[in-house]
Amino acid sequence: MNVALSVVIPVFNEAENIRPLLAEIVAALETVWHFEIVCVDDHSQDGTLEVLRAAQAELGLLRILHHAARAGQSAAIRNGVKAAHGAWIATLDGDGQNDPVDIPKLLKIRDAADPAIKLFAGWRIDRQDGTSKRWGSRWANRIRTGILHDDTPDTGCGIKLFERDAFLDLPYFDHMHRYLPALMQRAGWKTISVPVSHRRRIAGESKYNNITRAVAGISDLRGVAWLIRRSNPVDVREIP
Length: 240
Fold this sequence. Notes:
Blueprint (H helix, E strand, L loop, with lengths): L4 E7 L6 H12 L5 E7 L6 H11 L3 E5 L6 H11 L4 E4 L10 H10 L5 E8 L6 H18 L11 E4 H5 L11 H7 L3 E7 L13 H20 L11
Parallel strand pairs: 1-2, 1-4, 2-3, 5-7
Antiparallel strand pairs: 4-6, 5-6
Helix pairs in contact: 5-8
C-alpha cells in the first residue's frame, strides 16, 4: 500500500472527542494523496473502541489497533508507528486539543527543510489549559532543557511530524514520547520546534496531573541523560 503519511493517534477514553477529530483530519488532509489514520486504543473503558469501529465503517482510510491491557501513551504511539505504512508519521492527541490543520503546515515546512531534520515538534505558544497544568509544564520544560540541552520549548505537545525509520531506531521506554527531540538529537539527527495552535478540551478528562508527571519525570530524565552521555553516533557509509 503506497501511503505517503500516516496519522497516528493514541486514544484512551475519548469517546466524545475522537469522532469529530477524525472528521477534522480528513478535512485537513483531503488534498494530500495516500494518507491513512491509525488509531491505537489503549484499552479504553468508555466506548471509544465502539466509536472507532463505527467510524471505520465510514472511513476506509482508518485503521484501528487495540491494546488488550492499558500500556500507556508511548506504547500506543510506538505500536501505531510500527503498524503504519507511511514513511512519515504525524501524531495527534486523541482529546482534540491539537488542531489537524497544523499537519499540512508541518508538511510544508518539512518539504523546504534540511533533510537532516527528522522531527518537527509542535510548540503550543498559546496553550489552552488550566493555570496549574501550564505552570507545571513550564517548570518541567525548564528543568528538562537545563539537563538535556535539547533546545525544545515544548516536548509535551502531541502534534509532531517525524520520519518513521528514524523514530523506530530510537531506544524505547515508557514515556519516551516526551523526550523525542533529545533522543533524535542523540541519534545524530536535527529537530526543530514549530508554533502550532492549541484548543480547550471540550469533553472528557485529562489523563495526567503534575504529581504523576513529576514522579515519572525524575527517573526518566536521569535515564535519558545517561543515554546521551553514553551515546557515540557515527556516520557509517558503505564503500562501493
